[in-house]
Amino acid sequence: MQRVMNTIPIIFNETIPSYTAVGGSRRSAATGVSAILLNRGGRYPRRTVFTELEKAGFDYVISLEGPHDRYDLEDLSACFPFVRFIILKDTISLGEQINLAVSEIDSSLFFVLWNDLRILYGGDAAKISAWFRVSREELLKLPPGTSPIRRLCTVPVIQNSDLETLPTLTAPVFYRSKLPWKFRNAAKSLYFSPQAEAQLSLFPFDGVGIYDRDRFIQLGGFDGTIRNLYWQLMDFGFRSHLWGEEIRCTQLVRLSYDGEMGPEDTSADAGYRRFYLRNLAPVFRKDSAYISWRFFPGYFLKTGGDPLAAWGEFWENRQWVRTNSRRFQRDARILTGLWEQEAPSEKLNEPQQDSQA
Questions:
Q1: Rounded to two decimals, what is the model's pTM?
Q2: Which residues pair with 119 in a beta bridge?
Q3: In the chain, what are the domains?
Q4: Dihedral (C-alpha) 329, 330, 335, 339: value to the nearest 10 degrees?
């Protein structure tokens, strides 16, 4: 069955990839939390995974299947009618997969997981719903229209197969360049292990987290035009914080990986340039953000390439910032200052040699 969703705001999931949806005809529970299961490949006990998610009380499970035949889907969908299998025609990025899965659910919260992750504790959907919702008494004290969900995204503690806690929380690190232009900062992320409840994180490591669906959609979800996973996550994280949202950790939910994580690709490709122009280049003044025309010479000097292509790239992203200018509540400089105030013990800024643009 080909699915075409038309109820999502135009800013979110504007280009929907070709796919087929199988199953998912029956809600398993009514906790207000669904699970999105990403597939990293390999042979995993699918029936065991779905049974565990059913016992955990998730309303629905969206299982992302790669662009290849799955001969067991008919049997699985009969055994687990609350699971909707999304069969992709082509390979798409992590962020596009999550965006697509979100368009297939209506639960107010969704939990992004991988098939090689196991829930050690705290995975009960009813408890998750209670933990990350504002109480009725708290909500009455907040301005009208405030979301009942505490924040955009809450990331769990993740351990490796030896039950060692992984450094999955992230903080922004800016590297100074010696160039005498305004294009002076490059950004990377610093990883550290969670030490307390509700610590800030720049982005959800590996995409794993418990998300507020409405906030996620209003934010625009992940940018599917960025193919590099690292810069896609960085873009999502920066945009979240720059637009006034929060990503924090919780000690109440703990997961573990069966396998090992692969290396990150942090090379400065086209995805980095898009990330840079939309997140690091804007300057916040009074109540909005902008990119000055005078920024372009320094940008081109740093990136090089064809001047017309560079101008087109610059103009497109400058227009995007202009369209969304009032959604910004701070710029990257202010964000870093706020981060340092909350986590003064973390070394968030490190003077370095010239970095790639």
A1: 0.90
A2: 255
A3: 19-164+195-257 (3.90.550.10)
A4: -40
